[in-house]
Amino acid sequence: MRSVITVPRSSWLLGISVLLLFSLAACSSSESTTSNSATDSEPAPAPIERPAWNQGNDTYLIRLAPERGATYTTELTQSTTNNMMVQGNAFDTEQEQTVTQTLHVADYTEDGITTLETTTDRMQVDFSAPGGQGQSYDSADSTATGPIASALAPMIDKTLRLELNQGGAFVGNRDSLTAQVDSLMGENGPDSDMLIDPILNQFRFYPSEPVAVGDSWSKEVDMNVGVPLTVDATYTLDDVTDGTATVSVAVDINTNGAPLELGQLEAEAFLSGTQSGTMTIDLESGLTQSSEMSASVSGFAEFTPPGQNQMQEIDMDINTSTSFTSTRASEATTNGDAE
């Protein structure tokens, strides 16, 4: 029964870390102050012209080009059920979590490089499992203790800084990013190596060329979030109204028998599934305004318990719904408009 105890703890820690870094605004900043106006001794930077999102002929350039100094408040809510069968015993867990952050556009340069910073203002987690293993955590409670608090408390009010080009690709220093994540996670947090890929891939949904309503584009990425995944996503531009694009998303997920660590066990995961939903994008900035996603992943993991020779299986059926919203909290004035 040792594996029955170690599996769920690994599952919810992994689920929390994946949640935090898959949101389109999940990057973090130590300061929530804004830079909307220059001081008397420091004149405001000259406006920078951004590429026009309306390309004419009913085509649109969806690219990352936010205004320098703009600040947004984001909220990501996720609900997950994980139905597992471990050594013939059902082990069902549920997890609700909400992450509130402040996204700040620290810079936007003439060559189209955006620097984003985010403050993780609050995290709330409610995890339930059989056998009294459920836990709750709210970062607003400074007295909170337990494994979830130990893993997540170090992330509050910490800084993660990303430099991205207009296509959403990371153009900063990889070693520097790794050091940032190490600092963000703290001693009891997940291994930074398994969080780097989600950080780098979270903005890679932009099409490589202008698109019209009805057009689709695809992105395929390999990432490691504790288990190596192949993610094949297709995006379709459904509508453009008043500078807001509505995009539908269809994702195929596959682990292809990838190695997986379950507590003290080494296993191979054979999981596959889909994710679908819609997102709205502010075409002026290229930032996501909202999204509603649902995902279903199922399959099994094979492992050999310590001291045994017979391979066993853990059957898994994971269902997740995610809601994201972003609200602009300030007006920036240091970039020019290309319209």
TrEMBL record:
InterPro entries linked to this entry: DUF6263 (IPR046230)
Pfam families assigned to the protein according to its UniProt record, in alphabetical order: DUF6263 (PF19777)
Region forming the signal peptide: 1-28
Origin species: Longimonas halophila
Protein name: Lipid/polyisoprenoid-binding YceI-like domain-containing protein
Ranges annotated as biased composition (Low complexity): 31-41
This protein's UniProt keywords: Signal
Transmembrane intervals: none
Region annotation Disordered: where it falls in the sequence: 31-53
